[in-house]
Prior knowledge:
Elements: H1 4-18, H2 34-37, E1 47-58, E2 62-69, E3 72-79, H3 80-83, H4 85-94, E4 100-109, E5 115-126, H5 142-147, H6 149-155, H7 157-179
Amino acid sequence: MINEESKVRIEKLEKLKSQGISVYPERFTTNYELFDASQLKDGTSEVRIAGRIMSIRNFKKLIFITISNIQGSLQLLLKKDEVGDLAFEHFKEVFDTGDFIGVEGRMYTTKTNEKTLRIESYVFLGKALRSLPEKWHGISNVELRYRQRYLDLMMTKDTQNRLLNRSKMVRSIRRYFEDQEFLEVETPVLQHTSSGALAKPFRTSCKS
Length: 208
């Protein structure tokens, strides 16, 4: 069942389509990962990055946005007098937390010593039709975390780190055996019995 918030998000999606905007564009070229961008010197320009919007803080003439991916996060700054009234209001009208955005701009450090990218232009990369769990508390329901692993992966840093560490470990093991000229074989390919989509249904019976 679609809740009220999802209905609003769908309406925003349809509005974008009516404006001729590609709501799920195939490509956006970046030149930095989020973590790498956060290490750049102040004044570095033409920085192109992309990510999922995790939080939006609206003020009268500026908006602070935090975007994230599995390997890092970065704060963005959208200023009305830098991008223009049209782009500023457009962001406020169509973007929500959970959406994907691609941006280009230059780096600077805020008064609170946080690396931030000042947006010069942005591109809509995808609409999330459901809201994310509340940011500060994350997903505290263990059963929900196991049932909806995609939410757990998006919101729980420990889960993200475990996935990254497992990937690195498997890659290292595979690289070691490849260097020793071992041949990797996917054993299910060698099975003679039908399984998965090839399996045939069967019936059980009980004799009294």
